[in-house]
Amino acid sequence: MKVAVVGVTGAVGREMTRILQERHFPVDEFLPLASSRSAGLTVDFDGEEHMVRELSLEALRGADVALVSAGASVSRSFIPEAAAAGTTCIDNSSAFRMEPDVPLSIPEVNPEALEGHPKIVAVPNCTTITAMLAIGPLHRAAGLRSLVMSSYQSVSGAGWKGTRELIEQIAKLHGQEEELGRPDADALPVGEVFGKTIAYNVVAKIGEFADGGYTGEELKIIAEPKKILNLPELHVVATAVRVPVPVGHAVSMVATFDRPISPEEARALLAVAPGVELRDDPANDVYPSPLEAAGLDVALVGRIRQVPDRPDALALFSCADNLRKGAALDAVQIAEYLFTR
Amino acid sequence: MKVAVVGVTGAVGREMTRILQERHFPVDEFLPLASSRSAGLTVDFDGEEHMVRELSLEALRGADVALVSAGASVSRSFIPEAAAAGTTCIDNSSAFRMEPDVPLSIPEVNPEALEGHPKIVAVPNCTTITAMLAIGPLHRAAGLRSLVMSSYQSVSGAGWKGTRELIEQIAKLHGQEEELGRPDADALPVGEVFGKTIAYNVVAKIGEFADGGYTGEELKIIAEPKKILNLPELHVVATAVRVPVPVGHAVSMVATFDRPISPEEARALLAVAPGVELRDDPANDVYPSPLEAAGLDVALVGRIRQVPDRPDALALFSCADNLRKGAALDAVQIAEYLFTR
After folding, report:
1. Is-above-0.90 flag for pTM?
2. Closest chain B residue to A159 measured between Cα atoms?
């Protein structure tokens, strides 16, 4: 198989390249593609150096599958034509997620969406994946009615430049942490990526403000669960917050269901759920954190509690590596489902 | 007036001492008290050095008011006797908050609780205050029915030792941020305060695990709003999360009300609410963050949105300085209400 990675030098592209090798995806020819800025760099694949080429339809010609993580506008610019030319495009951006004829799939949660040989498949938002890996099995058992989410999203969700901005700001502020109790607003570093200081702060804006005061990120994680779970009437609300963590997203959720469901039942369901590792044993101080989820291929789920006086509602906390499980791994798993089952 | 600060060398005690001076509370005699560990240190008050004495009923004798921030077990050990001896004790700990005859007050939200010359008054939890300053005015207008909270709490909520633990861990990990995408679990620093690595992570456990898998902190912020708003049947659920921020708590909330309430109405109410500064203008990129709330005497409230398809429900985000507005300032404002109106 001829496999392209588009955006291969980015944070998610690097993980896609790693994961194709880790999982022994049957790659006969590896095509590393990126913007003109990165063309000419080299990428290691299976022990050989490959030169990165600039993305074009010509460069993609003959590719069986393209794993794409280059931003929504780049995806829009080439995916429809590449798919028409025969390349199955698995896209990590938001460009096609809500298109009715494009599957939006987490293979552990809604593999049925991948039936019918789709030529374009969308990978959900990284926070959506972190949430749905935990919620999917509970929904199948008890019927999800509503979902309230507050996220704790790492800076690598904004790519390398997000990680660099955090590191630079930490370098500036480390040693002055105690003075941040009365910060001099004019002296606080503000970068181009996060809009406010992200070091030693949390920033309740991801993406641009849009309809009704929601951010772009919030609108994604509100819309996507309805499509993934095939629940157009689901009630969802979300607040998306950036936190000064390099890798690993977390999401605090309150979910209501069609019938009573206890924490014990939820734990039993999640203990055997694919893509999930249950970390929920308060008596032994076991609960998940995003730094512990970094580098893993599963979401860590814990803090499962009954909502007071609500036998039909649970609170829970899920953490996943936003670059791997929340993006690159989902893309590779979709490719596996389509090509190697 | 003879005014004691108990726990005067702590993070909140220092702010109490500052705020008494900033607000010109009528202090004739200043009594700085602390544990034996801190006895003999000096504290500046109105330009004079005062020697810290060890806390005892003898040392408190004759004090008109004691502002106390020394932890729940210390508070339990002396407040009932000190109050019986005539000292009005305003306590920042959780020791007496849920006692039926002890007012739990945020003067801007429920000043009525302070009527009747109480001798013990409890200051609510810092996250409760951050939430209630925003919710109180909305409740008075539209009747609060339910509240879902996820918090983003700074390390100074655990005192100086919390701030130190963050600084030490940042010192260890700074320069290795990119490796935290695949962390070596055995090499991650874990301190005594937070149980997990708090630098570059978030920790979804504050206090100890208790009933139903809730933490001590969560049980406080679930119980306290019911008492403050005099709504024993209120539905509240909370997830309390520590974040690597030195000072400033944030809380993401979804609130439902007895009647429809729009973001515009909520903004109009909060624009004139005491103790609140509205920071909510998405068109001009205005929204609050905890680092911006640090050092302020108001909660910054923004990100007000209608919950989709729910005219009776709002999402919002409130940030406050957990040492000042969330603790020390509330205590001084209670003292002002009781003694200087």
Report:
1. yes
2. B178
